[in-house]
Amino acid sequence: MKQPSTLSASVIPTWVDASLFKGMLRGIERESLRMQSNGFLSQKNHPKALGSALTHPHITTDYAEALMEFITTPHGSIEAALNELRDIHTVVHQQLEDGERLWPLSMPCMLDDNEENIRLAQYGTSNIGRFKTLYRHGLGVRYGRRMQTISGVHYNLSFPDQLFEALQQHESNQQLKQLSLQDYRSHRYFGLIRNFIRLTPLVMYLLGASPSVCRCFLTGREHHLLPLVKGTLYLPEATALRMGRLGYQNSAQKQLGIYYNDLNSYLQGLQKAVHTPYPQFSDLGLDNATGEPIQINDHVLQIENEYYSLVRPKQVPEAGETPSQALQNRGVGYVELRAVDVNPYSPIGIDETTAGFLESLALYCLLNESPDLWADEQEQIERNQTEVVNRGRAVNAQIEADGSTHALQDWVQQHLKGVDDCAAILDQMQHSALYQQSVQVMQQRLDHVDNTLSAHVISDTLEHGGTWNFGSIMAQQHAQYYAAHPLSNDRKDYFEQLAQSSLYKQQQLEQDHALSFEEYLAQYR
């Protein structure tokens, strides 16, 4: 078994100065189910006091009416991003009624036998609102509603232009030197994305926190899990079942041939998928027996966002732009790291250790050589992911790389050394110790498997007698944390005004009767 060599450990060029990283921005999106006091999924509407889920910039819903999503603005420091996320959780907690809590795990709280009781997110009567709900209905028809109740954390990160300018000046490749800054930035972000995909098994081992699941999640599904305690299924050495075949999967997408080798071919692949009918989805029909639409279209993807990936290139859309058009017009502005489980031990689903590690890892991915990523290597990466998802804590877990097999521990260790170098320069930039300390925590998780989040979740699920008990205890602790978190009068006013203005914006949209929904949908189709 030879030592891995892909992605060399020392990636920071000698000319790089810490000041080049000043201006990094990060934002966080955290999903969480609302659960009733009896542990079952909430059946209540999105709290009106929080505003409109359609138009609120920070507090919205994802697939289900009960699946909340909290979105921070971009911030210049990890501390500021986490503080805003705390404020959002606190505001939400204050408006939950009848003993409802925020469920703290990636895998869902108790679901009953009837999938129809997982209510689709509702966005009002405007055309865009009805369109969003129809998209979710289509997901349910295609993949079932249970799969859409899984929660995650998305970490959005951008590096400053002065870094890309300096990198471009030091390029030896003349073609890269002649690119516009926008195109060069996109080129480098796509390199980051390919390397992050290669390293997702490392992320799953170090940050995975979904080794077990409530039995109700698998009602009517074949699975390979074992009983842990009454009502809970698991795999003894699993890390992140959310990221495996029990999580969000789209078999149709496997055949798409969407690659992250350059922006134009990525966008072409995405557009092809949005416009290509898929026989299995055609068989479901577009409308039901009474003529009501059940999915937006019968294509491989109803809309671009249906394409599920571990990391996405992003650009902030302007009015009327699709995500693809924004990327086409202004290039990649930031990356969205999506392979992150909710940390059940943090009241806000993520802590500064995870944030510091993800930023150090992203820089490592950005600065490293990043050859094109094609189908053969993608299949190998998927085998590595499956290995780590299902048995990443096994002493003989293995990774395929560079044409040979490596012990998972050796492979992760080699990359952690390089990530630590990146952490050191980010600490210099911030005059902090946060980044290197975060890598030290990951080193402890690598050295002692019992320190991993997934091992803690198994241990605590056993101690408390099942997923529901463990999740409920953590949800109660987090609720006490939110109740004790002070909100300044300015912040209270800010969120109250946002709630009101978002409801007004929704009302304005609902008063536009230029097109009926049938005409609106026909135009899209």
Q: Any overview of this molecule?
A:
- The protein has 525 residues and is of the alpha+beta class.
- The chain is 44% helix and 11% strand.
- The protein is built from 17 helices and twelve strands.
- The strands form three sheets. Strands 1, 2, 3, 4, 5, 9 and 10 form a seven-stranded antiparallel sheet that branches. Strands 6-8-7 form a three-stranded antiparallel sheet, covered by helices on one side. It has a two-stranded antiparallel sheet with strand order 11-12.
- α10 crosses α13.
- The longest helix has 23 residues.
- The protein is globular.
From the spread of the alpha carbons, the general shape counts as globular
Order of helices and strands: EEEHEHEHHHHEEEHHEHEHHEEHHHHHH
Tell me, rounded to a whole number, the average pLDDT: 95
What is the CA–CA distance across the termini? 53 Å
| Rg measurement, Å | 23 Å
Question: What is the secondary structure topology, with strand pairs?
Answer:
Blueprint (H helix, E strand, L loop, with lengths): L24 E11 L23 E3 L5 E5 L6 H18 L5 E2 L24 H17 L9 E6 L2 H9 L4 H4 L3 H18 L1 H8 L4 E3 L11 E4 L2 E3 L28 H13 L3 H6 L26 E4 L8 H8 L3 E7 L11 H16 L7 H17 L6 E4 L2 E4 H23 L3 H14 L5 H12 L2 H18 L4 H22 L6 H8 L1
Antiparallel strand pairs: 1-3, 1-4, 1-5, 2-3, 5-10, 6-8, 7-8, 9-10, 11-12
Helix pairs in contact: 3-5, 5-10, 6-11, 10-12, 10-13, 12-13, 14-15
